[in-house]
Amino acid sequence: MEALDYHAEERRKAEFDVEEMKIVWAGSRQAYEISDRVARLVASDPVFRKDNRTMLSRKDLFKDTLRKAAHAWKRIIELRLSEEEASKLRFFVDQPVFTDLHWGMFIPAIKGQGNEEQQQKWLPMAYKMQIIGCYAQTELGHGSNVQGLETTATFDPETDEFVIHSPTLTSSKWWPGGLGKVSTHALIYARLITDGQDHGVHGFIVQLRSLDDHLPLPGITVGDIGMKFGSGAYNSMDNGVLRFDHVRILRDQMLMGVSQVTREGKFMQSDVPRQLVYGTMVYVRQKIVADASCALSRAVCIATRYSVVRRQFGSHNGGPETQVIDYKTQQSRLFPLLASAYAFRFVGEWLKWLYTDVTQRLQASDFSTLPEVHACTAGLKSVTTSATADAIEECRKLCGGHGYLSSSGLPELFAVYVPACTYEGDNVVLLLQVARFLMKTVSQLGSGKKPVGTIAYMGRSEHLLQCRCEVERAEDWLKPNVILEAFEARAARMSVTCAKNLNNFANQEEGFAQLATDLAEAAVAHVQLIIVSKFIEKLQQDIPGKGVKRQLEILFNVYALSLLHKHLGDFVASGCITPKQGALANEQLRLLYSQVHFDNPSLLLYMVLLLERLLQSTSF
Ligand SMILES: CC/C=C\C/C=C\C/C=C\C/C=C\C=C\C(=O)SCCNC(=O)CCNC(=O)[C@H](O)C(C)(C)COP(=O)(O)OP(=O)(O)OC[C@H]1O[C@@H](n2cnc3c(N)ncnc32)[C@H](O)[C@@H]1OP(=O)(O)O
Ligand SMILES: Cc1cc2nc3c(=O)[nH]c(=O)nc-3n(C[C@H](O)[C@H](O)[C@H](O)COP(=O)(O)OP(=O)(O)OC[C@H]3O[C@@H](n4cnc5c(N)ncnc54)[C@H](O)[C@@H]3O)c2cc1C
Fold it and tell me: Is this prediction's ipTM beyond 0.90?
């Protein structure tokens, strides 16, 4: 059979309305249409070609990136693209670039932490890209520990200026994207010092390079930190190093939305939580969760198409060999990843809503949901990026030897994606933040304060700590309420056990240090519960299209039961389910795999592209 026939055969098996499924994936018909239109725009424009980038030298790759960024900007202006269309265009251009940081962190930081006047002064220039900014927080010595940053911003009351200085080698800013070559300005985080007193880390806008000749300004030492993991990949970004030698900036270049320094040098803390200084990270973590499903779906799409076309073993009487997609082992490795892509998509949609909600609350001086939003963004960023990075590597293996070729797209996807486990907060460090929030919640359980939102289930901990799962047959595992209760019981029990064990230590900090692994696992259980519960909420919505809801229900069950299988130790050890019930879950999972269907519309095109890329990549 030819590739085209396999294609037709697999399409025939797709028992759902593919067009409607695309709309579910995009979030709305309008979002789908925008995405489709912009994808075509990018694909048909030769400036945006990306088939050769793993073969370019760093210098040529960087030039190529600048060309694409300038062209993208030109198209955005010419076509008067909306904000949503422009961000889709950047997404499909698909090459890490300084503008990610300009639009994604520099501007949001000014919007979130600057006062009205500062926003009016800086944002119009930034929107027109008359200035280009980066987000310079991390230093050589400290990334995770933000309070350990060493760069100083000392107020000089005589001149009404701050003096920005890098007092040690370890205080050098290290990593900021866009800093190495391009940015004219940086949003730097430095210790605020007034009258000899240290007020902790705050944000300051500093000009780095001349707007006339782009040379570094006096007192500024700046450069690129060098090659990163993989060919192509993240090397299109100019991650940089930056040092200050007593650089003077005006007082109003400190972002004054959270705290202020008066003309007299008096430090004033507004009545907003100081954690709002970390607000840009919360914003980007939320975006990263939304993006995880995109990276994951790309990898799964490549591995699925390959698995349909690839045949290996099992030929009888000269007939065709077995499609590797039909091997149960291939299915048990691939389908949970497909299901995860949908799970992350839906939880990403919900997180976007949560973020919009907290933004509106903050504007009305309601800070009550901030700790929960921090825990959700940190936890979901950690769990979805770790799972996606692992999944991309699994997809590479699912494609056998071909997955290791650059032309499969998977090595570059992995190399670009894997730092997501580190940037915007190391994933383990972020899980420990979630654990802190959970321990606080458990400690307040008897206080009369009712847990709400994603921790509402803790309010039912009396029941969850002693409930017994009622599954007797494999099909009982198809009931969403059975799955939900098992995940709630596991999360509640793991958190409560950690909280009890913490009491065995002389002080909380010592306990946290010793029990960090258990705490991180409890955090994962809580975050997986959030993902499972948001998938269930999605399925409770009206979902049109023949067979679409049914297919999503299958994917939900695959997602939840494959997690249960993977973490069976947690579920059984905490007494939520018995080993027998675990075995029944696995039996149900096996049955579900034969019900997963997929559409494969451009399989032939994919094969042709693969061959073209192979020819190019071998012509060195
Ligand atoms: C680019 C954008 C566009 C699209 C996105 C898509 C892809 C991204 C593409 C590329 C990425 C490119 C750039 C990457 C940039 C960066 O990496 S920027 C640097 C990011 N750095 C970090 O994330 C550092 C991680 N560390 C921290 O966040 C903190 O130091 C900490 C680990 C949270 C510890 O904080 P702290 O020292 O204050 O200690 P605690 O005592 O633990 O916390 C005190 C209380 O504050 C609460 N808290 C902490 N953080 C927050 C927050 N962000 N919001 C709200 N509340 C917060 C914490 O829970 C404590 O609360 P308490 O227990 O009640 O007291
Ligand atoms: C591609 C890329 C782009 C980046 N872009 C930017 C940018 O634009 N701007 C910017 O400011 N920064 C940027 N960063 C920096 C990034 O935010 C930091 O690297 C990240 O926050 C992790 O900090 P670190 O490097 O200090 O890691 P470390 O904290 O040194 O982590 C090393 C190890 O220690 C562990 N660890 C650390 N603390 C604890 C703890 N308390 N408990 C248990 N384990 C712990 C971690 O889990 C990890 O395994 C970027 C980084 C990368 C890789």
Answer: yes
